[in-house]
Specification:
- About 45% of the residues lie in helices and about 20% in strands.
- The protein is α+β, with helices and mostly antiparallel strands.
- It has 2 domains: about 1-90, Winged helix-like DNA-binding domain superfamily/Winged helix DNA-binding domain (Arc Repressor Mutant, subunit A), CATH 1.10.10; about 90-149, Ferric-uptake regulator, C-terminal dimerisarion domain (Dna Ligase, domain 1).
- The strands form 2 sheets. Strands 1-3-2 form a 3-stranded antiparallel beta sheet. Strands 5-4-6 form a 3-stranded mixed beta sheet.
- The longest helix has 14 residues, at about 110-120.
- It is flat and about 60 Å long.
- The N and C termini lie far apart (about 45 Å).
- The relative contact order is 0.13.
């Protein structure tokens, strides 16, 4: 998905923010990642497009984009925040703690849990991007083989 599908310019204007060349470069750099991209990679892409944009400008723009729902941020367990362009539908990720493999799952897979949280605690979960950590099927199978030997 590209950021154009999100009508990003209109969302900035309607929330009282200016559409700038710098913000366009930063959002394009997030899109170029085709998924989770760390700040450092986004910054390098921005620098290739416009060397006058500093790291703090990139960081502030990303925070604004997250606040406006144009970009989602996720901690995938590597002590760094990753960014990706928001999708039209909520999605979540399964991340293997052993090999780092990521698998995207749709929101429906977690709705039963969100409903249970609401029923038990009266708390409405309002997240559109959740990262769950565990162990993938391959790593679990490899661990079983190691225990048997």
């Amino acid at each position: 998905m590209t950021h154009d599908a999100l009508h990003w310019e209109q969302r900035l204007w309607s929330s009282g923010h200016r559409v700038t060349r710098q913000r366009a470069h930063i959002l394009e750099a997030v899109c170029a990642g085709n998924g989770h991209t760390p700040l450092g990679e986004i910054y390098l892409r921005v620098q290739r497009a416009d060397r006058s944009i500093d790291r703090s400008t990139v960081y502030r723009a990303l925070r604004l984009f997250v606040d406006l729902g144009l970009v989602v941020a996720a901690d995938t367990g590597s002590d760094e925040t990753y960014y990706e362009v928001a999708k039209l539908e909520a999605h979540h990720h399964l991340v293997c703690r052993r090999c780092g493999q990521e698998q995207e799952i749709d929101d429906a897979a977690l709705q039963a849990m969100f409903n249970e949280v609401f029923q038990r605690h009266g708390f409405h979960v309002a997240t559109d991007h959740l990262v769950l950590f565990g162990f993938c099927e391959n790593c679990r199978a490899e661990e079983r083989l190691n225990r048997e030997n």
